[in-house]
Amino acid sequence: MKHIQLSHISVSDIITVLTPTCNLRCRYCFFTPRNCREYDAERIADRVLRISSEEGIDSVLIAGGEPTLQRDLPEFTEALSRDLHVTISTNGTRWEILRKSTFHEVHVDLKALDDEKHLQLTGRSNRSVLECIEELTGSGKLEVSTVLIPGIVDVDEIEKIAEFLSEWDVPYRITGYVGYNNSLGARRPRDDEIVRAAEISRKYLSSVSTSLDFRRHKRRRMVLDHI
């Protein structure tokens, strides 16, 4: 029997399934697991499909935490993809699970191109992340994102990432650091700094978006009841 660990499900204009565990220790992580339990993967899929039917939503995002730590993710995504547009949000460290999974989009969070900065932020090298990105570049399903952190992952680092991605011209999203618990001692970037990072990235890439573009969205509600 296939199982998935579940934190909770949230519903807005997309259904988001959140898994609780992660293999990185990102110093600015804001995710707080909620009702963490292990469920039969088919049971969760049925719940998601019921929400989809009731709410008229045709897309699901699987995130976390790190969803590829769920070894039964391939079976779970296969069940969902029959009826829904499936997006996986991942740190890109477990290609061996991701490549077996079924998805329409995959969003890989590249914390930094500089390996020392990546180690500082996550406690782990970025080598497997870069390899995962390269494996996915020909799929037409990849989006890469980076958090802009003034003084750490600054505009110059964003430019290096954009230049790295330019070989494949994949969509790139820049998100402003929000300073949750502020363990980095960094400030939030100003709007003009985010805009500047995007402008520089567009010298290399044809599709660049930022967190400023996504400020308005349907309010989320949590589905915390037992599946």
Automatic annotation (TrEMBL):
What biological-process GO terms show up in the record? molybdopterin cofactor biosynthetic process
Cite the CDD domains for this sequence.
Answer: Radical_SAM (cd01335)
According to the UniProt entry, its GO molecular function terms are:
4 iron, 4 sulfur cluster binding; catalytic activity; metal ion binding
Annotated keywords: 4Fe-4S, Iron, Iron-sulfur, Metal-binding, S-adenosyl-L-methionine
What this protein needs as a cofactor is:
[4Fe-4S] cluster
- PROSITE patterns per UniProt: MOAA_NIFB_PQQE, RADICAL_SAM
Please report the stretch or stretches of sequence annotated as the Radical SAM core domain.
7-215
Q: Does the keyword Iron apply?
A: yes
Q: What is an example of a Pfam family matching this protein?
A: Radical_SAM
PANTHER family, per the entry: GLYCYL-RADICAL ENZYME ACTIVATING ENZYME MJ1227-RELATED, RADICAL SAM DOMAIN PROTEIN
Task: Supply the name of the protein.
Answer: MoaA related protein
Please report the organism this UniProt entry assigns to the protein. Answer: Methanothermobacter marburgensis (strain ATCC BAA-927 / DSM 2133 / JCM 14651 / NBRC 100331 / OCM 82 / Marburg)
